[in-house]
Amino acid sequence: MFSPFGFMGTKAAGGDADADAYIAAVITAGGTLSGTEEGAIQTLFTDLKTAGVYDEMFAFYPVIGGLEATHALNGLRVSSSFDLSFTGGWTHASSGMKPNGTNAYADTSVIYGTPQINNNTYGIYVADSGSGQAYAVDGGVISGIDYWHVCNYWSATGAGRFTNDWNDSVAITTKNGNLMINMRDAATNAELWSNGSLDATISNNVGGGTTGTRSFFLGAINNDGGGAASWSYSAREQIFSFFHRRALTSTEIGNISTDINDYQTTLGRNTY
To answer: In the chain, at which end, N or C, are there fewer CB atoms within 10 A of the end residue's CB?
Structure first.
């Protein structure tokens, strides 16, 4: 029997129910999906569940469909609470979503309060290295004395940087990759993983344990809830991000890195 699925952008029946709900949301938002793209989404959802990291997600953004409306969608379609809200100049295409580096950011509405303040993991996958763009943060927030961010290039010469606190940040002198995962499992330990490998650690003064009051931005640091005081704008194209409710183990970080990169490989957007 002839099947039109994959040609008409209609979700195929019989897949993972949560993946089906996300595919339906993408199509409702005006996106069209090929059979390959639908298959990539289905595999992503089942892989995340097999890895044991799906159920405790705040949000994750598969960035597919080529439109602002589709890129905004949180993969968890229980509600639209964590769908992205874009501000400033963004370019949306099948390759990803690219901020202009001057006034663009996306508000996730994700706030790490108690108990996530010292127990969290988040990750951002950028499609380009951004060499030459200094002090550009791919995602972050300042909330009280707690400060999270990751970026591929902190200096124009190639050093990346990440932090879990205003008072203690670490330069990544050898930038290993474009999929950056920041894990914090205690007030005295945080780690940055790049492309599935441990890249750098912070082992002291990692946070004051204050409850977060501001949400994470993508493409910049949220310094005041938006507006002129948000800073360190990035111009690097983003193709995936996620925010988890707890610190993932090294095995889980390895698994989720593989799952995300396999998804990007199927879409032809992987960088490693």
So the answer is: N
Residues 6+ apart with CB under 8 A from 60: 48, 74, 75, 76, 240, 241, 242, 243
Residues whose CB falls within 8 Å of the CB of residue 189, separated by 6 or more in sequence, listed in order = 201, 202, 203, 206
For 50, residues 6+ apart whose C-beta sits below 8 A from its C-beta are none
Per DSSP, the three-state class of 253 is helix
The confidence score (pLDDT) of residue 4 equals 41
Type and span of the H or E element at 221: strand 221-222
Residue 50: how many CB atoms within 10 A of its CB? 11
C-alpha 85/C-alpha 195 separation (Å) is 27
**Per-residue pLDDT in tens (0 to 9) along the chain, 272 residues:** 333 444 344 455 569 999 999 999 999 999 999 999 999 999 999 999 999 999 999 999 999 999 999 999 999 999 899 999 999 999 999 999 999 988 999 999 998 776 777 788 999 999 876 555 666 677 777 765 455 666 554 544 444 455 544 445 555 544 546 888 888 887 777 888 888 988 877 775 555 555 567 888 999 888 765 555 567 788 889 999 999 999 999 999 999 999 999 999 999 999 98
The single residue listed with the structure tokens 């707690």 is 146
For residue 35, what are the contacts with CB-CB under 8 A and spacing of at least 6? 5, 6, 7, 12
The two three-digit tokens of residue 65, written as one number: 């469909």
d(CA 177, CA 196): 9
CB 271 within 8 A of CB 246: no
| Strand 139-143 to 221-222 pairing | parallel
What is the residue type of 56?
A: E
Q: Dihedrals φ, ψ of 51, to 5°?
A: -75, -10
